[in-house]
Sequence to fold (715 residues):
Amino acid sequence: MAEMTAAGEEPEVLFWVGCAGSFDDRYKRVTIAFVRILNHVGIKFAVLGPEEACTGDPARRAGNEFLFQMQAMANIQVLNGYNVKKIVTACPHCFNTIKNEYPELGGNYEVIHHSQFLQGLINEGRVRVKDGQSFKGRKITFHDSCYLGRANKIYEAPRDVLAALDADLVEMKRVRANGLCCGAGGGQYFKEPEPGHKDVNVERVQEALATGADTIAVSCPFCMTMMSDGVKNQNREDSVRVYDIAELIAQREGL
Amino acid sequence: MEIIQQILFVAALAVTAWYITKRVKLIARAINLGRPEDRTDNAAERWKTMLLVAFGQKKMFTNLLVGIMHFVIYAGFVIINLEILEIILDGVLGTHRLFAPYITPVYPILIDVFEVLAFGVLAVCVVFLTRRFVTRVSRLQAGRHRELRGWSVPDATIILTAEIVLMIAFLTWNASDSVLRDRGVGHYGELQGVVPDFLISQYLKPLFTGFSDTALVAYERGAWWLHILGILAFAVYVTYSKHLHIALGFPNVYFSDLQPKGEMQNMPEITKEVQLALGLPLTTEADGSQENDNGQQPAEVGRFGAKDVHDLKWINLMNAYSCTECGRCTAACPANITGKKLSPRKIMMDTRDRLEEIQRGWQTQGDDYKDDKSLLNDYITAEELNACTTCQACINACPININPLDIILQLRRYRVMEESQAPASWNAMFSNIENNMAPWKFSPGDRFNWADQVNESVIK
Fold:
């Protein structure tokens, strides 16, 4: 972003990578897949790079409002400083926080989730989902993220993206508004679960496996980890894979 | 004789009205313990929500069959209450079926509708008892949900049984009255040819064929009194019961949250401090004036987050009084499903229990009652709060838009900001965010490293 601004250019959209997309080895692949799609389509985008900082979502949900607002204010300073107008992110938590919680602190942007962005590209015919690997005969089930679905009522965009593949989509029992959490939200990702008889991600993965799907599609870095761990817990990592929707599109495009 | 009945009736009405007024004031006072917050904005959207969710009971129809059954009780409750108007006037004036001579053509149609609904209510109450005690719907079982181990199950049983008794009284009253009319006993005979038999109660008439005229009059009077006194007693009981949702459900939905479920409420008092800390200009909206435009500007910044009920917002407290303890929230809660202690229903029940404890304090020890208990710790434990994934399934599941998550998050804020009682790994996450700008211990400078691999064929 800094380079673009220095060159007097303005990006179409700012890609907010998020902490998981920047540091988590698994989710970095999603970041790369999404960037390859953007490059392939010729979107002029920017990232903040080292100027990006945690939105503060996990701190806020854990109860640390001070830390959240420190993060938020600093990020808003940077974003407003670059006169950012449109943001795309592959993390529903960043998405929800920037979209719904930054405006009150002075950060007003058009914020879209990468599922919506991909949906747009597919609808416009800019992503040609046919050059790469075929998904014929594969069964994919989509896991709704709480902060994309219930929190912001985005249920169709990721499903539309998956529908562009030539795979079979199968639904779990608890979907859309009734979707079951992966167990990571509200700061749970950053601590051990409280005592119980089961881990939430295991409950959810069992439900996903019951559909007979060989691919569990997610659109959130935390769901990605929780679902992957759940699949390992069920000893199914050889036959069932967890992918982000951007990765599946990139595979289909041969990127 | 007639005049004594009238006096007794007026006395019963007066006692009920006095008692209910007292209860309503007490509950209103408890709800007003909460922090002020303006919820009168966006009236169009609020009316729409109320029409759909409260009047239309949209969210009850998630399960179609249960939705229909609940709708029958709801419609029955609202519509049969029209008949109460006649009953009350009859009671006060000492008349019998006051409206019949004036609206002769429609009168039997009205009573037929009431009877069909009464029969429907009766049948559904039987089904609901069956669901509780025979088919044992999981979310209603005290064996699986500790918050139901107190008064909740007896409360539900009392309500369902009372409704069954009231409906039986209403139907058999009509039946015994029809028989008296047929026989031309006393004033009952006056309505011969004016009022016909009714749709349902005509089939109950054979029950009374063996009764003498005196016994029949006694039954008719008994059923009439049982029905009306039952309704009055029920109205008082409701104010003590989880059944209060029949009244509070409507305002509760009207004032419910309109913002996206994922949006957490801002704390303007903290915005101010953060802006000072970062050397930013203070924004006007950050001084808290927005929230308190009813003139109740707080003199000082209270505590951060909530420890007790008076730290919560009034809507949280209205939520607690509106909760019917149906447990749809708990049945949808990922933490509860997997055996954690958290139950969103318990959060709401605890909040109401705490409020009722304070109410009892007012009544026994005066209006300035204080104790050293609090909602946090004495009712809701850290383990419950820490188990929440903030997934909002509870809010989504609630048929009347109650928000247990809002209470959980306010209690968490108190624990973290006032008591520094976050779990150790959360403290580690906090310090990572503070020092490394990410919840993990990575160097901020490495944030862009992924870019090196964008053009590589194999991603490490």
Q: What stands out?
A: Chain B has two domains: 2-31+63-254, 268-442. Chain B is about 55% helix and 0% strand. Residues 286-299 of chain B have pLDDT under 50 and may be disordered. Residues 375 and 381 of chain B are 9 Å apart (CA to CA).
